[in-house]
Automatic annotation (TrEMBL):
GO molecular function, one term: DNA binding
CDD domains linked: PBP2_Nitroaromatics_like (cd08417)
Name recorded for this polypeptide: LysR family transcriptional regulator
Family of the protein in this entry: Belongs to the LysR transcriptional regulatory family.
Domain of life the protein comes from: Bacteria
Key words of the record: DNA-binding, Transcription, Transcription regulation
Taxonomic path: Bacteria, Pseudomonadati, Pseudomonadota, Gammaproteobacteria, Vibrionales
Matching InterPro entries: LysR-type_TF (IPR050389), LysR_HTH_N (IPR000847), LysR_subst-bd (IPR005119), WH-like_DNA-bd_sf (IPR036388), WH_DNA-bd_sf (IPR036390), YidZ_PBP2 (IPR037402)
Length: 311
């Protein structure tokens, strides 16, 4: 059966302007009337007025105060991705043909793990120094700004290592593109009992392991494969990033399974032995993730193209 056409409430829509949506979008990022006003170069009273009008039109409080903090309501958070998409599309129309990287003075916001930053810092440095010297870049920790922040427009891109067989997110608006293919290896300290031995599956599973947490990614393929084909690893310690795991690895007998690219380049991994894994771990890579509507913004499209170039 054919679906009925979507009803457009033009009268209600005509009462909501871009200034309302822009104020809401920035407020979701800053959680501050004062900071939002500063970013938009208008007075705090104007921001308060816009939000008051929007509260009436949307029949929702949008933000409530908890001590000195402004907390968005569930409805405001739900609106975030939609508002971001609307503003990105409008921004693309306004700046469809006049983007010049050398003169761009806007802001770029990326999120990644510290381990990913160690690998991709040279690429970002090249962009900043040679192509967009007047732009500003803010790099957030992915633990604090993940896929929800990407969907809401609080950040522009995420860079992270992941198992390609993992479905990191089912959201159709998020685009994933591999920046660099990788392998997985096992790290151990130089005087480990297995240092001069070939690493077998029995050796690997007999040891304790250091794990890496990521609340937004599914259990990696290699963990599932180990549990199904052999048995699960013993992981008594889980840390936030590769660097912390490598430091622990130097002071314990625990093994650390990680990115080969990172192990070869990271300062924290220096002095650790690198051994190939004795089992099938699938395919892994570092990927760039962005929100599809963001590509309406010429500045974001340009940076996306720069980051995707072969390096």
């Amino acid at each position: 059966m054919e679906e009925p056409p979507l009803f457009m409430d033009y009268i209600h829509l005509s009462r909501i302007s871009l200034k309302h949506l822009t104020a809401l979008h920035v407020m979701l990022s800053t959680r501050s009337v004062t900071q939002t006003a500063a970013q938009l170069c208008i007075s705090p009273s104007s921001i308060s007025k816009n939000l008051s009008q929007l509260r009436i039109l949307l029949e929702d409080e949008l933000f409530y105060r908890d001590g000195t903090h402004l907390i968005p309501t569930p409805f405001a958070l739900q609106m975030g991705p939609t508002v971001h998409s609307i503003l990105s599309s409008m921004n693309g129309l306004l700046h469809h043909s006049n983007f010049e990287p050398q003169h761009y003075q806007g802001k770029y916001r990326l999120a990644m793990r510290e381990s990913a930053f160690e690998l991709f810092a040279p690429i970002l440095t090249n962009v900043i120094k040679n192509h967009a010297p007047q732009a500003s870049f803010t790099i957030y920790s992915k633990d604090h700004y993940g896929f929800d922040a990407l969907q809401s427009g609080l950040i522009d891109f995420v860079i992270l290592p992941h198992d390609i067989s993992q479905p990191p997110t089912r959201d159709k608006e998020l685009v994933w593109e591999v920046m660099a293919h990788d392998e997985m290896v096992c790290l151990m300290r130089s005087d480990h009992a297995l240092a001069n031995e070939e690493l077998t599956i029995d050796h690997y599973l007999a040891q304790s392991h250091i794990g890496i947490m990521d609340k937004e990614l599914a259990e990696p393929f290699f963990e599932q494969n180990l549990a199904q084909s052999h048995r699960a690893r013993h992981v008594p310690v889980i840390v936030a990033d590769f660097g912390a795991a490598a430091i622990l690895c130097k002071h314990t007998d625990s093994l650390f399974t990680c990115s080969k690219r990172w192990a070869e380049q990271a300062m924290q991994a220096k002095g650790l032995l690198v051994k190939p894994l004795p089992f099938n771990y699938g395919k892994v890579a570092y990927s760039l993730v962005w929100n599809k509507p963001s590509m309406n913004d010429q500045a974001l499209k340009w940076l996306c193209d720069q980051l995707k170039k072969p390096h």
